[in-house]
Amino acid sequence: MFAAAKLGADEAVAKRTHHTASGDEGSDGETERAPRTLRDKPAKSDRTTQPSTGKKRKGEKQAAEVPEDTKEPDEIQQRTAQAAKKYQRGGPSSTTTKVRSKRAQASLDHAKRRREEAAEEAARSEMLLTQDAGFLEAEGLERTYKFTQAQLAENLDLASAGKIFDLKLADFGPYALRYSDNGRHLLLGGRRGHLASIDWRSGRLGCELHVRETVRDVTWLHNESLFAAAQKKYVYIYDHTGAEVHCLQKHVEPTALGFLPFHFLLASTGMTGQVVFQDVTEGAVVGSHRPGLGPSHVLKVNPYNAVVHVGHGNGTVSLWAPKQGKPLARMLCHRGPVQAMAIDRSGTYMATSGLDGRVKVWDIRNFKPLHDYKTKQPAQALDISQRGLLAAGWGPHVSVWKDALSTRVDKPYMTQLLPGVSTSALQFVPYDDVLGVGHSQGLSSLVIPGAGEPNFDAYVANPYQTTKQRQESEVKSLLDKLAPDTIALDPTFIARLDPRSQAQKLRESAVAERERYAQDKEEGKYLDSSVRNKTKGRNSTAKRYLRKTQANVMDLKKLQALERVEREKQQREKAGDLPDEHKGALSMFYKDQR
């Protein structure tokens, strides 16, 4: 049986060899079958070896295999490499910090590879973004700031035209408003005690209540399930049903609120001028500072480094962190009290308005003014959109400037007149071309083309978030909660390594201490004890200050005093007299003997 099987196998091999030979003659030297798939190479069993004759056929060129590293990148790879540059973090990818420890060096190299891979993946994902940001364009002699919301509604689709509406709430205004991070929910707070949360896209009311006291500001917490209200005496926290959850009595007479989402900190300022930071997960107050500049009504959070900006009545803006007892920086912005403030999402630009009627744009990186705009009335509200549009509300007018942060523009992009009202709050809706305006008669929703980011990241903010996704994101954000110590002007200081050794640090500190001591000595901060006058009545504060300032000044009076002391000393030594302090307690019975 085994012999028969072997014979059958030999016949099959012979038939295959005969078929291959006949195929070579008829198919012009094809030696491989078609691959099993388009991406798989032919298997070794599918290949047949052909003895090489050493001669090339006429017109045949020998193809050389090009290594993949030396191949030129195609168009897609070039576009990906170009787009990946803007996603790089921590400096250029070619530079790497060198340290002595092999384990630390391996960790740095691994982190560098992860950054490069993340930048490349982010660049590749750009190809899947299908939405583009578009702005309003005028033809001929038309101007975009002449277009009204009624004209836009006639030329928009039904879904976009439905975003232009007014809420008439004249009994409880003026209103403060705040949109959630995903732009889906709206929070309203009337000055006369009206609170309401709305899913404004679907028109569904979340909760509505009346607290029967003054409400100065409102803000969402980590999501739309909790919100805080700055009421007459304290800050109160409510849930999505309108039930009171907490009363924060450390925030006395608050006027402005801000929330730090990555640190779960609620910041406030008020009539006392105190800046308070409170952890909403533990309830502990992690920072309380007194600037000493009177009541404050303006507070904004920088989304880049989580530093809190507070505007004061003397025209200054101070920057605060919870664990720093003094302000990180102070900026003199206006000649009058600061009325409103806005910070862009990159943390680079800050816009402020004051009672002097100016709207100024500042570069926070070097704390220098870039340019300013003039309004007929002081702007009471400011906001910056995700695409860099600057909106200002002054009186019944709302003005929006395009490209107003990086350059100085002469004319606004869009304007809107709200007759018979006075604006009190402004905010652009995230991921949408809508501007919400709170005023004395309620709320107005305006369509501003090109204001919102057209493509959203579902891991950051998802407008179509389900209940399950909201719960998972809440747990994840609590696990990733940052400590208050990580708040600083430069957030990239975290995870930096100091390559200096301990001995080098000690040497450098000793040298710095000696230099500081020498400088202080030259400035007269240290006095020589040999010339210090200890006479009664001459050791007052003013006399000590004068001696410190004149420690190195040798005038004629001081030289004569030094000479007199030296001459008396020489006379005593020559006469053999002993000072009284050397004679002891029986000095009255002591007689000098030569």
Automatic annotation (TrEMBL):
The keyword Nucleus applies. Residues 412-491 form the BING4 C-terminal domain. InterPro entries: BING4_C_dom, WD40/YVTN_repeat-like_dom_sf, WD40_repeat_CS, WD40_repeat_dom_sf, WD40_rpt, WDR46/Utp7. It is found in: Nucleus, Nucleolus. One of its GO terms (biological process) is maturation of SSU-rRNA from tricistronic rRNA transcript (SSU-rRNA, 5.8S rRNA, LSU-rRNA). It holds the Pfam family BING4CT. Residues 30-47, 60-77, 114-124, 517-526, 566-584 have a biased composition (Basic and acidic residues). Keywords: Nucleus, Repeat, rRNA processing, WD repeat. This is U three protein 7. It comes from Coemansia interrupta.
